[in-house]
Each structure stands twice: as structure tokens, then as C-alpha cells.
Amino acid sequence: MFPVRPISVKTCSIVLFALAIATVSLLCENSALAQETTVPARLEWKAQWISHPTAPLREPITLHFKKSLELKAVPTHFIVHVSADNRFVLYLNGQRVGDGPARGDLAHWRYETFDLAPMLKSGANTLAATVWNYGIYGPVAQISERTAFLVEGNSANESGVNTNSSWMVEKEMGQGPLARKPNGGWDYYASGWGDTLRASSYDWNWTDDGTIGSHWVHAGPALRENIFPNSGIAASHGVTADVPWALIPDTLPHMAYQEEDAGHVVRTTLTDAMNFPKQPITVAAHSQVHILLDRSEETTAYPKLAFSGGNRSHITLTYAEALYDEKHHKGNRNEVGNRQASGITDEIYPDGGSHRFFESLWWRTWRYLDIEVETQDDPLTLDGMEAHFTAYPFKVAAQFTSSDPELQKIWEIGWHTAQLDAHETYMDCPYYEQLQYAGDTRIQAMITYAMTGDDRLPRQALRALNDSRIPEGITASRYPSQLPQYIPPFSLLWIGMLHDNYMYRPDKEFVKEILPGTRTVLEWFASYQHKDGLLGKLPWWSFIDWVDKQDNFPSYDANGESCLTTLQYIGALEDAIDLETNLGGPEYAGIDRSRLALAKRGIQGQCFDPKTHLYADSPTKDLFSQHANMLAVLYDVAPRKDQTELMHRVIGKEIGDTGDAGGPSLIQASYYFRYYLARALDHVGMADDYLKTLGSWRGFLKMGFTTWPETPGDTRSDAHAWTSHPTYDLLTLVAGISPGSPGFQTVRIAPHLGDLTQLEASFPHDSGLIHVKYAVGTSGLNATVDLPSGLNGVFVWKSKETRLHPGANSLTLK
User: How large is the average pLDDT for residues 608-630?
Assistant: First the structure.
């Protein structure tokens, strides 16, 4: 249903930059997995941050920059480093080179590196860029100081492109931000505004060689304060300089930009439009028509609409993850009927010219795209429409098939969702927020490890959240973000995310780099730990999960104590103790052990209810949740002898228990927190019941979902990667492949097949692919396990361990 999307990835190319004070990580793709190789980063910059000399630089603006370059011959390499505030799209001789920079903060402002040589020609060349900044209308994830642009050649041979007053600039009057319309369904929206294109004002020749009109002027310094004679010369992170952008190289590959279908017509009020966008269509004068496109699956892409004629007409593009009925409810995602698209829009005002086109400055998210056209005195021809898919260019290595074909669909859609939520940062959702939240990102990183083995995006996330720490000690809940938000439990999950990296990836030095930040987080939490061991009420927002009783979740007693937040604190302490014991300081491990012992005593003494044999959400013992009880199992707060029974209380009906356990009803975990439910099932030896918990995902298939939703019911977001954890679970719990020791130095394979009779899977490892194939019959399990060279491990089946060696392993087990 959803084949793995082929994404071209840069081949290994190591370019030696100028002498450096830091190192930058670049990719060498021809290894078994994508890995980072350190090469010198830039020490000294010569180029100046430039901008328009008179335009307001902190208001919404779109600029074009241009520079001519004469070459006697095309060099083998022509390396340039490019950045902007906010964003740039770089062109060479009218062809798109790439975009950026990847988001960060002012203390960690990224620059992109391109080799222009393949696109250069002897003689005149034109290097050009669109730079835009939507100011207060920009995405919440976009931090900004002022509109500025920077290009620097890697050496003296490329210094002719360095930004200074020799560059020309114009203010593009024809393209800018478009306010969101009050057409319903916005909920919380943080992704930024749409675009408006007024073709009569747009400079359609701005990339052409030698085309300089009166509106073009010489660029000026972006820093008009002119503090020093060389004010505005770029500087790297760690260098003392009076510039707001402390530059660091982008360690990620360039995001994908691949042509794909924009969709096919599923409803229109225009005759003979069903073959659009593959064939042009003409809308008569004085007409108003709608053309609804359906991609059949959701995407994140740059839409590009070509049009001719239609002076003074009006085109509105509306992007939607799903269609809405008259009560603004979604339903089966495949149903069209009279449902309408609602959401973010772009607007285009044609000028009558031929072969015009509109492409959004930032990518859009859609399954359905409604094209509304209203013409005046002239007919309008829509010449065609295409889209360019964009996301992080993952190279998928994993494989999963089984005797249950629905599981294959669940696995594939989960990965498709995770792809759409991974760009230059992880994102909670591609439509509404596009923010990198710690709680979401932990799960997304685990999916990335299991599907690709590529750890560059997880490392970016761990560093970003580390950089977000405030003087009090905790991380922001999401980062980068121009609006501060703090969810203290997410700082605890960030510690868990670092421990995950420690288990799955071999780079101990990277973990050591981040580890000191975890100490400030735990010190902050310790200041709220009462003498009885429980955490008191925390400032800001103690979000745990989206549940029905959100206003009272987590709950507190009269002393402001919470069992649930304390349980999350316990999990972070256990991870921190493991990290400190093996990579950090024994003294920190000792402090954390004391905190852990006190917290566990507090939970057992204050939160366990002997009447119900459950763990309550607070010492008041008036509310009980799946969350508190699964965490009590996962972190061994509950005695081992009681854990199986407790998990049956948590999830018994879902896995087929017929007895009536009695007691209070439990607040149910959402799709997000069921990631931890899966971990608890595995911890207590009940992972063979895992497949019985996928009823919601099987229901999604019947409802036409092509990505996984944020929450049950009438969900806001249709593409939330935190609901994609079954993609990870099917590889690690069902196929049973997981690290047997830190750094994945050994492997532990413990399949939990449930009712499956066949399964085949592959899992990426630095040494090569781990491949398993299982067949279950009346005589037991026949298993074939292929391990890459140098990797040893164990195979666990019904509590019996069998040693595994590199190469082929054949096992027959009862």
C-alpha cells in the first residue's frame, strides 16, 4: 500500500574547510549505516551579512539577491557556505541549488554548504537567492533577529561570491505572507502563514543574467548599527564578535526535493477537468470553479502551479489532511461526497501573462488540495501542477513482513507518518505545529534507529534540547521555538532519549557531551522532591498524556504531591544512574541512587492502594490510570511477584481476559503513551499479547487513514509520529531485535509472535543488516538468524537462551 519512498541521498564527499575551532560532522553514505565523520569547520569569515539598505528588516519581507560571476573555465569544485535569516532558496543560472538554513537559535545559527561546480559554465554566471522573513507571522519554530543574507566562498578561489556591497538586492513586492482565514478547524496552529502572489507586481526576470531594473540597489550591511568599521562580518560560534548569528555548520544532509504528483481530480465544477493536472484546463471568463485534488496519501511538499492569462482573476489553494462535513467533522478519509477542504491557504492573483507559476516559499502538508478559481473578463488557463516532496532524506534499511498482511500496512503507514514528521528537525505534526517536542521526539528517534540506523537527526534533537536549558536547569518542552514553553516531564523524557542513544549507537563521546545537562535537570526536580519521596506540584505545565480528564491529569493531593510525575522522575533517575555509572561520575550516580530509593519508597508507601491493589495517581487515591500502573511495573516499583497481575488489571480486557477484576475504572492511555505500555508488557514477560493491543490501528485502516492521528475521536492532526510507535514495536517486540548491550555491541533477539505463523524482518546495525526469519508450526519454532560480521548475541524463546554467532544461525525450538 505504501512502498518505502525512494529518496536520493548525497554520496560521501569530504571537503576540507578552512582551519577551525570546532568540528562539523559530515556524512559518509557508502558505509553500512549513515555515520558522521568529523572535518574542520570554519575559523574565520570574510563575508558580510547583507540586506536591503533601506527596507525594514524586522517586518515581513521578501528579498531577491543577485551576483554575477565570470569564469574562464569551470573548476572541479566550487564550494560555498550560505545562510540567511530566516530562509533562503539559492539559484545558479536560473536552476535551484538548494535551501536553508536548518533551524536553530542565534547561538547556534546554521549555514549550508554547496558545491556549485556541476552547475557552473565558462563565462558569465548568475548566483541569485530569494530570502524571506515573515516576522511575527512566521512559524513558532523559527527564531529570528532580522532579515539578512550570507554567502562565503570556501577559499580565495571562490571569494568572488562573498556577500558585500557588490551584491544587488531588490524588495519583491509581489510575494508575501497571507493571513490565516477564520474558516474553522485551527485549534492550536503554529506553522506559519500562507503565501500570496500578485503576478502584476512580481519580478518574473529576477534570476536572469544581467537583468537589473531601477528597483535593484546595492546591498547594505544587515547590521546598520555600524558599531565597528567591519560591522557585520560573519563569525562562528565561540568567536567574540558583534553579530547576532553565531554560525555552526549544518551536520544534516540537505532535505529531499523530489518531484511527485500533486494529486488527481476527485471532484470539480468544471467540465472536462478530470485529466488535470497532467493536461491543462481553461476556466472561462466570469466563472467560479472548484477543482479538488486527492493524492491518495498525505505528503509534505512544495506545490507548484503553472498558469497563463486570467488577468485580475483570483486563485485560492486550500490544503487539508482530510475533508470536513457540514458540522466540521472528519470521517472516513477516503470519502469525498460534499465534504470540503479547510485549512491553510495560498492566494494567487494572475496578471494575464503566459507561463507564470507559483511555488510556496515553505512546504505545505496535504492529502486534499482544493483549487478555487474566480475569473474576471479574461479566461485563465491552468497549465499544470506538480509537487516536490521534501523531508529528511532517510535511507531505509529495515524490512518487515508476516503472515498477517494488516501488520505490513500498519508498519508502512507508521513509517510514512514518521517521514512526514522528520525534516531539519523532528516535528510533532507537519500541518499544525512543526515543533520538535521532547516527548514526541523520543519515540521518533527510536523509529529512526530501527528503520534506518541514521542517528544524525536524533543527535540534532538531543543537542537542541540541551541548548534550550534555562538557568533553573530544565529544558524547554520544544526547541527551537521563538515562544518559550516548559513541560517539566518532557525534560525527564529527554534524559530517557539520551539513554536510548547510549543503547542503540556506539558513540560514547557524544553521550558524554550531553550528559552534564541531565544533571541540571535532575537537580531541578530534586528541589521539588518532598521528604516522603514524592514530587510536589511543579511550575509550568506537567503534561503527561492527552486523556479524557485532562483538567485533572496529573492529579495532586492536598500537599500538592503527584504519584504520576514521581514515577516519570523514577524512570529518568534509573536512566541517569546507568549513564553516570558507565560514562559519567560515580558521585552523581550515588546522588541519583539516593533520590531514586526515596522516590520508590514514597510511591510504595503513599500511592499503592491495598483496597484496589492498584497504584493511584496521587496519595488521595481517588483517581487511577493505566499510566501510573504501567510505569510502576516498568520501573520495578511494583514487586516483581505482583507485576503480571497488575498488567492484567491495566489491559486485561484488551488482551482477552474474561474475568471481572473489579475496582475503579482506569484513565486510559492515548496512542502516544501506549509506547510505554508496550515497554511494560515486554518488561513483565507479556509481549506475546502485544499484537492484541493494535485494535485502534486496525480501525484506522478501515477509516482510510494514510498517516496516524494525534488522538482518538475527532483528532486535530492526522499525522502524528508519536502514534507511529508500532513500526518500532513490530521490529523490536514482535520480531524481537534489540541491543543486547550499550552501543548495540551485542544483539538480543527475543521474538513475541502471538498468533503469527510466519515473520521475516531486517534491522540496521553498524556492521550490516540483522536478518531474521521465523516459521511456527506444530513442532515449534524454526528460526533463521543472520548476523553481520563481528556481532554476537543471544536468542531468547520461552525463557531459554541460545547463543548467536556472526553469520547464519539456524534454530529449531519447542
Answer: 97
pLDDT in tens, 167-214: 999 999 999 999 776 655 567 889 989 999 999 999 999 988 876 778
- CB contact at 8 A, 417 and 430: no
Output phi, psi for 486, to 5 deg. Answer: -130, 120
The conformation of residue 701, written as its DSSP 8-state character, comes to H
Measure the CA–CA gap between 125 and 135, rounded to whole angstroms: 32
Nearest to 64 by CA among 127, 134, 139: 127
Residue 265: how many CB atoms within 10 A of its CB?
A: 18
Residue for grid cell 515573515: 134
Name which of 663, 650, 566, 552 is nearest 605 in CA terms: 566
**C-alpha cell of residue 589:** 550516580
pLDDT of residue 211: 66
Q: Residue 200 in contact with residue 351, Cβ under 8 Å?
A: yes
Question: What is the pLDDT at residue 185?
Answer: 55
Condensed to tens digits (0 to 9), the pLDDT of residues 479-495 reads 999 999 999 999 999 99
Cell (9 digits) for 62: 521578501
| Pairwise CA distance, residues 351 & 204, whole Å | 11
Cell of 305: 502551479
More confident call, 37 vs 742: 742
Low-confidence winner among 217-226, 372-381, 505-514, 678-687 (lowest mean pLDDT):
217-226
Calculate what percentage of the chain has a pLDDT beyond 90: 87
**Is 607 in contact with 628 (CB distance < 8 Å)?**
yes
Q: 163-194 as b/e, with b when 16 or more CB fall inside 10 Å?
A: bbeebbbbebebbbbbebeeeebeeebbbbbb
| Mean pLDDT to the nearest integer, 761-769 | 98
Query: Which candidate, 504, 511, 475, 512, places its Cα nearest to that of 492?
Result: 475
Q: Which three cell numbers stand for residue 401?
A: 513482513
Buried b (16+ CB within 10 A) or exposed e, 710-732: bbeeebbbbbbbbbbbbbbbbbb
Task: Quote the pLDDT of residue 344.
Answer: 92
Grid cell locating 397: 534499511
Distance CA 441, CA 770 (A): 25
Assigned C-alpha cell, 736:
524481537
Spatial distance between the Cα atoms of 708 and 719, rounded to a whole number of angstroms: 5
* pTM of the shown model: 0.94
CB atoms within 10 A of CB 491: 27
**Residue 440 and residue 425: Cα distance in Å, rounded?**
12
Distance CA 615, CA 592 (A): 23
Task: Find where cell 516483581 sits.
Answer: 640
Cα separation, 26 vs 14, in Å, equals 7
User: In what helix (H) or strand (E) does residue 572 lie, and over which residues does it extend?
Assistant: helix 563-583
**Grid coordinates in use for 236?**
562562528
Q: What is the DSSP letter of 446?
A: H
pLDDT number for residue 661: 64
CA 453 – CA 445 distance, rounded (Å): 10
